[in-house]
Every structure is written in structure tokens, then in C-alpha cells.
Amino acid sequence: MSTKVYIDGQEGTTGLKILERFAGRTDIELLTIDPALRKDADERKRLIHASDITFLCLPDAAAIEAVALAEGSNTRIIDASTAHRTNPAWAYGFPELSAAHREKITNSARVAVPGCYASGFNALVYPMVSSGLLPQDYPVQSFAVSGYSGAGKKGIAQYEDENRDRGLDSPRLYALGQNHKHIPEMQKISGLSHPPMFNPMVCDYFNGMVVSVPVQTRLLNKKIGVNDVYEMFCKHYDGQQFVQVRALQGADVLPDGFLAANPLAGTNLMEIFVFGTDEQILLSARLDNLGKGASGAAVQCMNIMLGVGEETGLIPAQN
What we know:
Layout: E1 3-8, H1 13-21, E2 28-31, H2 41-50, E3 53-56, H3 60-69, E4 76-79, E5 91-92, H4 99-107, E6 110-112, H5 116-130, E7 141-147, H6 152-160, E8 172-173, H7 183-190, E9 197-203, E10 209-216, H8 226-236, E11 243-245, E12 270-276, E13 280-287, H9 291-306
């Protein structure tokens, strides 16, 4: 018996990428809306109620409206917006963070897909805090680089305009007022007492990202070194298919000494790296902002909710 799936907002980047991941699946019956009615609340409500699972690929306000439209149904909601990521009633859609996260996704009717930057950040900071290696009140700073696909339709159009502003030729820092929409999610999910300082930048390539967090061990409550951190990550993510900890430094990790942001484009894989010295440790997470950072994570959560192979429809890594 196939699962009836509706994507509310399937014409956006995340919705289209979810559709791509359904290609060839015989266990999915996709419910579609007449394009002329895609903003019609009654038709959206009909399709939400007719589905077993509805994906929300919408702005926050529209996602909140869609959840209200689902009231009275047995439909399970997977929301890719920012609207519900810090809501404790919703499962946070990052099953590799802990067994509790995975169990809540399995059993929940409401799952919030993590933000792309927040996915990389929480993959690094949650294990550090939960293991006790990083105090909750540590002054965390993070910097990140992403392709322009995360900028939405308007941003993508700007980058792909042949007459674009020359400023788009270079990396561009943004959210300089420490007001990035992922910061509340980054703080709450990681377990930090205070918001992290976050310095993202967007660059002239389509998709892929790296999120990094530096740790000054002299500021910690106990003495630890780079090997302690590496061993903790290996243990934390042991056996996980889509989050893999790479070898500790060495030429076999980065033969040319550069950590490129786009090698995982098109996959659902996230890589964790530990660099530095016992005094200054650099943690980095690499992922596809459209994969494990968005549509791939959404489909992975659906697979877990349905009890099918977690990797169904997903590419763990490029050949």
C-alpha cells in the first residue's frame, strides 16, 4: 500500500528537491495541486487531509497556517520552514543527534526539519555540550560558507543574472547584526546558555556548505586535547549512515590542505572534521545545504516515520 504524500509549496527549491528524491519510488503516491489553486486554503486543506504525510516548503507564516489547516486530520507534518524548530512539541528532524531524537521522529506526527547552517552547527556543538566537553556557557562563535541556492528564488535569480552586480563575484558576509534566523535554533538544540555569535557568508557557487566552530581549550572547565574531542565524535556518530567522522587531520583528509564546501553536493551525507592543536581546536561540518541541510533531511525523516530504509531515495555519497 502506497503512502499518500502532499508537498505544500512544491514549486520552491526545497519542494523541487524533495520531488527529485521521490523519482523511482513505488511506495509514494504524490498528491498534486492545480497551480491555479496553490494559494487556495480550501484546496490546500483538502489535500493535506487526504495525505498521510504533508511536507511544508513554505514561509513561516504560511507553514503555521498549513498546520492549522491540518487540524482534525491524521496527517503527519514535516515542516521545512523555521516556524516550529524550537517548539518542544515538535520532533527536531536530526536523528543522528541522539537516540531520543530518532525515537521522537519515529513516533511524532509533527517534525521540524533543521535549518542548513543549524544542521552543521548542532552536529558539532550538541555532542560537545552533551558529552560535557564544552560548558553550556562557553562563548561559542561560528563561521560558515554556503552556496547561493540557500538564498531563495530572488537570491538565486540575482546570482544567475548575467548583468549582476560585481559584488556577487566575491564571498559576501551577511546577518552581521547577529540576527540570523537560525540562531535561536542553534542555541536551543545545542543546549547553550547564550546565543552563539554566527558569521555566515554566501559565495558564487550553487550548493554545498561548511560550518566551523573554534574551541579555545584554555577557556574550558577541564583539560582536554584534540584527541579527546576526536574520540568523542567517533563514539557519538558511530554506526550512523549519513553523518561520518573523518580521520583526524593528516594528508589523507585534505591532501591539498583546503576544505572545499561543495564536494557533497547532491548527497545526503554530512562529514565531521576535527583540526588544530590541544590549545586551539577547530571543528567543521561539511554538507549539502539542499541535501542533509534541507530536502534530504526531510525525506530521511519521512523514511524513519514510515519505517522504511532510512536511505530510500537518498544518495549517501558520490561515487
